[in-house]
Amino acid sequence: MNTLLWRIAGANIKILSECETSQKQYANIGAVILMTACVAFCAGTFAAYYFSCSYSNPNGNLPISILFGILWSLLIFCIDRVLVVTLQKKEKRGKTWWIFPFFSRFFLAAIIASMISIPIELFIFEDYIKGSEKLYLSMKDSIYIDKYQGKESIKFYENLKSSRETERVELNGIIGSLKSSAAAEDVTIQNLKQQKGDPYTYSKSYKIAYDSYTAADRKYENSKRQYYKNNRLIREAYNNKESKKEAAYAIKRQWEQQKEKEIALHNNIRDSLQRELVIVSTAYEQADSLYKDANGKYTERYEGFINEIDKNRTEIQRGNSFMRNFDILEWAVSTNNPNNEGKIASEGFFLWLIRLLFLIIEILPTIVKIATPYGEYDALLEAVETQKMGKRNETASLITSKDNEDLSPEIMTDAEHNL
Questions:
Q1: How many angstroms separate the Cα of 291 from the Cα of each of 161, 299, 303?
Q2: Sign, CA torsion 275/281/284/285
Q3: Which is nearest to 271 in space by CA: 162, 169, 185, 355?
Q4: What is the pLDDT of residue 90?
Q5: Whole-number Å distance between alpha carbons of 383 and 305
Q6: Is 10 helix (H, G, I), strand (E, B) or coil?
Q7: Most confidently predicted of 76-90, 148-162, 291-305, 373-387
Q8: Run of H or E including 202
Q9: Rounded distance, CA 252 to CA 198, Å?
Q10: pLDDT above 60 (res 416)
């Protein structure tokens, strides 16, 4: 097992087997690289699964996801191994030799850690993402509404519709008032006609005159029986009756003439109201037609606007699950989420702890190699490499110092072999 971990760590097995003090170090480095590859397999599988999920296929494609997870873990394994293998210690180096290799590898480790951690984050925060999706879509709707090109047209026709509606309501109120006034005039005319036809009930002066006439009439009738031999008294009673009758009829005619004038006046008022009602009704029909036109255009544009919002939301929902869930998670923990009241959510801190953990895991082999002192394994490895380099330089010098024609085939063969 240790030999496998050593190979994963990129160590020289022959040299490391003779250096007991460095064996655990490289075994741990190999274990970290191997565990990172295993986590990368899970992350790659999750990522591919989320990518394969869609509105039409919510269950994703698990076999393809596993295959991608294997390829992704191999890629991360090779990158991590290269980062460790290419970092070699030398005995004679300055105190700041580690700065460039550390930060170059830190930059790569940060990228790799982010790519590995994101799918794991989406899996861990799956319920939190689902709970934030509705508010996230509302936020996306608000952004889309603010950027919608036809918003001004909708606002224009909405205001036009409102003004036409106000005009229509005002005209309708005037129509109602005119109809009420005309109806009141009709009632007044009917009352006047009734008063004209019944002066005894409605005219106090006529009632008195008529009662006086009826009293004189009774007196006349009595006088005919009482004074049937006295024509003068009968004639006086008759003349009194006739004068009372004439006075009553005069009051009645005056009453009727007065009521006819009042009826004529109210007829004129009613006719004027009806003429005005015709004019206002025509204006109302025009205002109603303009209102319907404005309302139709507003409804058409507003329905188109709603359809565009629904289409945009559908595109978001039908889009790639990985990117959508990542966007929801980033927004849900940020200060832009109104539920967070301008603060980063507690889930956000946990999210960054996960990312920091993966970054530490990814950069840990490099830190271990830099932090551990120059040891026996490093010395032997450097000696072997120096010896091999010396032989190569010697052979190269031998080849360049003589022409190829002066060398025997045996020497050339040995030289090429050494190179």
A1: 6, 12, 18
A2: negative
A3: 185
A4: 65
A5: 75
A6: coil
A7: 291-305
A8: helix 199-202
A9: 9
A10: no
